Amino acid sequence: MFYRPEDGHGLPHNPFSAIVAPRPIGWISTRGADGSENLAPYSFFNAVAYTPPQVVFASTSAKPDRGDTKDTVANIRETGAFCCNVVSDALKEAMNESSGPWGRETDEFAHTGLTKAQCETIACPRVADAPANLECRMTRIIALEGQSNFLVIGTVTGIHIHEDALKDGRFDVLSFNPVSRLGYRDFAKVTELFSMPRPGE
């Protein structure tokens, strides 16, 4: 089949996010200027540069109590800081629960029973039991085409790695089985690896 997005796909469910998959989950924690704290997952997320290390994520909807966006972007606008927490298989239920349409007064750490830790380089909470956390300074928020679509770019200023995830000097994803987002309501986790040397190596 072929379709133009502006004409519609004619299917029971939008296939776009199922085509661009799997996608890493940016489980973003923030603190607002008023001290309130928030935790929410974003599946439009990735690392985009090595030096300096940088990440991006996109928020694509709004809440009535946050104007043109949601709690995460609103907090980052106020403070310029956020943390990306890696989602392990053991944390997938808490991650999913934190995606609910909770009011801005809800602290998702408390709501999900997650242990909170403080970041080192930014004033922001992080998920203590995540296998890794990326502390980030926001460098830019870009308004994308469409209503309430915002791209957030951040430079990584600090990295936490759980000791259990380090094996022989490498970050071992099989020690925690990272969870990724597929289309619809589907997720996947990494349970096996294969390696391929680049040409010329």
Chain-wise SSE layout:
Blueprint: H1 16-19, E1 23-24, E2 26-31, E3 37-42, E4 45-49, E5 54-59, H2 71-79, E6 81-85, H3 92-97, H4 108-112, E7 116-118, E8 125-127, E9 132-143, E10 150-161, E11 166-167, E12 170-171, E13 179-181, E14 187-189
Antiparallel strand pairs: 1-13, 2-3, 2-6, 4-5, 5-10, 6-9, 7-8, 9-10, 11-12, 13-14
Q: What would you note in describing this structure?
A:
- By secondary structure, the protein is mainly beta.
- It has one domain: Pnp Oxidase, Chain A.
- Helix content is 12%, strand content 35%.
- It has four helices and 14 strands.
- The chain has helices at residues 16-19, 71-79, 92-97, 108-112; strands at 23-24, 26-31, 37-42, 45-49, 54-59, 81-85, 116-118, 125-127, 132-143, 150-161, 166-167, 170-171, 179-181, 187-189.
- The chain has a seven-stranded antiparallel sheet with strand order 3-2-6-9-10-5-4, covered by helices on one side.
- The longest helix is centred in the middle third of the chain and has 9 residues, at 71-79.
- The chain starts with 15 loop residues before the first helix and ends in a 12-residue tail after the last strand.
Features:
single chain; 201 residues; mainly beta; seven-stranded antiparallel sheet; 14 strands
How would you summarize this macromolecular structure in one to three sentences?
By secondary structure, the protein is mainly beta. It has helices at residues 16-19, 71-79, 92-97, 108-112; strands at 23-24, 26-31, 37-42, 45-49, 54-59, 81-85, 116-118, 125-127, 132-143, 150-161, 166-167, 170-171, 179-181, 187-189.
